[in-house]
Give the backbone structure.
Amino acid sequence: MIPAAFEYHAPKTLEEALRLVQRHGDEAKVLAGGHSLLPLMKLRLAAPRYVIDIGHLRGMSYIREDSGQIAIGALTTHAEIEDSALLASTCPLLPETAAQIGDVQVRNRGTIGGSLAHADPGADYPAAILALDAEMIAANTSGTRTIPARDFFVDMLTTQLQPGEILTQIRIAPRRPESGTAYEKLHQPASGFAIVGVAANVLLGKGGKSIERAAIGITGLAAKAFRAEAVERALTGKTISDKLIEEASRNAAQGVEPLSDLHASGEYRREMARVFTRRAISRAIEAAQGGASRGGA
Amino acid sequence: MTTRYIGKPLKRKEDPRLIQGIGHYVDDLNLAGMHYAAFLRSPYAHAKIRSVDLSKARRAPGVVLALSGADIDGAIQPVPCAAQIPDMKPAPRPVLARDRVLFVGELVAAVVASDRYAARDALDLIEVDYEALTPIVNPEKAIAKGAVPLHAGQKDNIAFKWELEGGDLKAAFKAADKVIKQRIVNQRLIPVPIETRGVLADYKAGEGQLTVWSSTQIPHLLRTQIASMLNFPETLVHVVTPEVGGGFGTKLNVYPEEALVAYLAIQLGKPVKWSESRRENFQATIHGRDQIDDIEVAVKRDGTVLGLRCRVIADLGAYYQLLTPLIPTLTGLMMTGCYRIPAARMEITGVFTNKMATDAYRGAGRPEATYLIERVMDLVAAELKKDPIEVRRKNFPQPKDFPFATPTGLIYDSGDYQKALDLALKVADYKKLRQEQAKLRKQGRHMGIGVSTYVEICGMGPSSAMPAGGWESATVRVEPTGRVSVMTGSSPHGQGQETTFAQMGADILGIDPSQVQVVHGDTSIVPYGIGTFGSRATAVGGTAVYKSLQKVKEKMSRIAAHIVGSDPERMVFADGRISAKESAKKSVPFGQAVSAAYVAKTLPAEMEPGLEATTFFEPTNFTYPFGTHICVVELDAETGDVKLVRYVAVDDCGNVINPLLVEGQVQGGIVQSVGQALLEEAVYDEQGQLITGELMDYALPRASDMCWIETERTVTPTPVNPMGVKGVGEAGTIGATPALAGAVADALAPFGIHHVDMPFKREKIWHLMHTNGRRVQ
């Protein structure tokens, strides 16, 4: 890789890192696992003047229970999320999603914070983060703020993060026993990114025969990941049946302008959104009815 | 000769260093004072160059030299093309473009700097004034009326027309019950060896010695071409091929960068290195395939194929590389496949377009031929409502018919096509597969079974049929310590001849394979050779090794017989000793006979000292490996996804030296075919931009795309060489694509579809299974 010249900083503390991004603003790029930034720098599509490598910060890679929530450090790798016993029992959707990212090498280096902050339209985590109603904790030199997942993704490669801010933590409510989750993905065969990725999180009513609440996050389909509210509405309060799931899934791409590229036309993406939404909902319901989420397909 | 090692699955001698990452590729080599080259490439597919301004680049920190086409005018000859077709038009590619560029990635300027970063940064400072011209990307548009000729002084974009006809075609079509027509497209592919190209050149002005390290398959031919291109004495050019991380034919070529890096090193008197980036490799290393085949086939109602007519449009790209025009002609030679088809005709139109040149990619013209004829057999079966196996069997020549003459003028050496087919059917349990398919169809599932019975042309030689020598060299030298050096003109780059030639040496001389060192890829050590391509290294190069080993053995027999007092004819080589058959006492250690040859005090009268033999072997014919592949797929109607369910490969490459390496070649080739069938396609947009320009967008097959490959072999030795070996390097890519295509077409048969062009991408298959979003069935 032969990128354009840049000034490299490897701060040891978050405070130092925040001061650097504050000082350099738009001219700085934050480097975590390197799997989004480096490919762009390799092709000189990105040529930041300053690269702030936060990979050396201590204490930003963790998965722990914290005040009734699960807190995940932004520098936690996909592989660590995939293998986490705590997440397997409290939030199986995230390990299931992480396991479908890229390949082993990517999962060993790439971080959840890096992926979310980069906001690639085909990234996998955004679907799960949306379906889980996660909270993003962003820090700058004057303090921290909480950004709900639904507000976090703004557009292609754009999030609510402001210049000078670093995403430090992701917070998730642990699953309830009567809930179930699933991530279903059609991968782009070259890059492994999602052509369509659907994360479903359903909460069943008493007896497990109806859907009390559904949260559906979809990635890959459009410029940014989104909550498929029309699907959610069609499911909420209804008695579970194949027909219900099928019909609700037809709304997956409602109101969305699908992406179209070499690998999938807009028409095909729209259709696949329906198929994979149905598959994700069905499996999430199965998981909820089984009392525990099962692994990926 | 006892075969203690030949035929055994020895692990590769090459692997420990490669697995540990301690082998040396071009980019691992570093010389004192080394500088780095970077190349500016055209961002336009078609443009005039008004001017190139290097002044800023020349002033950039670290830059020692910057050159445009004008700066080297006349100093370097154009890129060579060894293939000659009657009346082909010239299309000389300057090593640096002068006044126009004809494809994205064409070289426009060169920069040398003290480090890679400085060289790359300086490219951004070069100012080129281009006048963009309309590119021609589609080969049919390129030859349509009114298309602007890409090459100056030419009236159209037809590079050549080539025709081949044999048998009575008129009679065949007259006697036909049916004529089936089909257009079959063989898409453009990017070969993607793991190691991209790389060149390091060093010039010692005092000695006048130029050394070039290049990641190539043809070190000697490259040496000759560099000498010619630079008008430099060939005797002073030394080409070294270190580890080569795969070639697939892309490195069976001479590229402008090879001559340019050498030229830059001579100009500077400093070592200069260039390592190709993946993007450069995609844009400016040869591509493969890219044919449009319009076929017409004349058949009898009983499935007998009477005649085949084929019009081919071969997209050559903008310029010729070393063998560009030759590749489609191989399709012509092999178009009747493993069948007795009495009449055949092919007309090839070679076409210039604003793209990278096509050339030899694993199989080189033969995968296209096999694909074409095997698709034909499936179409015949579909049209006549017969089982594809039955149609194939009906048209096979019988074992007694060999040597078998084709209407295209080839003589197939040996074959037993029924035997391979029968074994494949048995392994796959074909009858049961068809029953299962019928059952699944009733359940609304889409299983398809594909079969390919192939024959390929291998062991590239004799010279009369080759552009540049159809022979190979080998020197065997037993060193004074008793170690054996095998210098081969073949240039293995993954094939494993360091192991297989050592197995041969060990068996012939009765020693351990660890005593045999295979040396290749160094023009100062190895006698002039041709190189590794066309599945020839074992069949042709190996035979040269075999003959040299026999010569050395014969001399050692005489020495040993002289020492123990016996007859040279009665000497047996085994377990590191040379012994007379008649008495265990009449025996000398191998090393003693070697010493005798060098100390030269006890040699038979008039025997020369030393222990070395060289052979230049040229075969009398090609070899023709064959086999049957059977593939089972299931389509996901919701997504169009093609899932491989089973793959059975029965290959016959004659006798086998190392079955482990044959297995590796077969499996690797099949995986590469899965790439072509399901995933791969080099896509240029209308502006001639390569939009599959990175591995982010060009999909290669991965382990998770594969099913288990069940492999078996039949053994039909060739009479063409003494070891009876045929070659297996390309069998997988030749045999497998039609089986995959057949399986997908078979799965789509209930939709009334009998042919789909590759690649079978999900969306394409999904579209075929749906109309307006609704399932057809």
Q: What stands out?
A: The first helix of chain A runs from residue 14 to 24. The mean pLDDT of chain A is 95. The longest strand of chain A covers residues 194-204. DSSP finds twelve helices and 14 strands in chain A.
